[in-house]
Amino acid sequence: MLKSEQRKSIGWMTLGLCMGLLVAVGVVIGSRVTLDPHGTEPLIELPERLLHASATHGSEEFAVATGPISDDSEGIFFLDYLTGELNCYVLYPRFNKFGAHFNTNVVEALGVKRQKSPKYVMVTGVAGFRGGSSLGKQPGNCVVYVADANTGTFACYGIPWNKSKENNGILQQEKLVFIAKGTARHLDIEE
Known about the structure:
By secondary structure, the chain is α+β, with helices and mostly antiparallel strands. It is built from three helices and ten strands.
């Protein structure tokens, strides 16, 4: 007679083989259902979905983030921790050049003390602003959030975008628009 441990091992091995067989059968059935008889063209068409992604990275003295400005263009944001300067450059894809530059300084909005070493974090977010102005400016499709990790204070900035200037390759150079600020930390931390 087989020992109890040997029976358990054989049982687990049998279960594993059965599970593997079920997966293989599922793959074969799935490919037969979704591919034509020659196995080259899908029979089921799924709707195409475009993926929009932004990226963020930082070091001890600098942060970089990207975000969509219009349907055709993307901005790259740079935050210099030493000066508090926040810059956004926008690529004009039709002209293969950076055609817009927006900037501000985050020190005042965040209440950063000069004697302290600020520790910033920065991300972008999608913003579907409605309307525009008679000047042809529609806010850009993204906002940038900057936070001071020392205090928990954060600020949000928008892009005063002019699609007409992008379409014609005309330089845009303005200040980023301060939208709002808040605090993520609700405790006083003694220094």
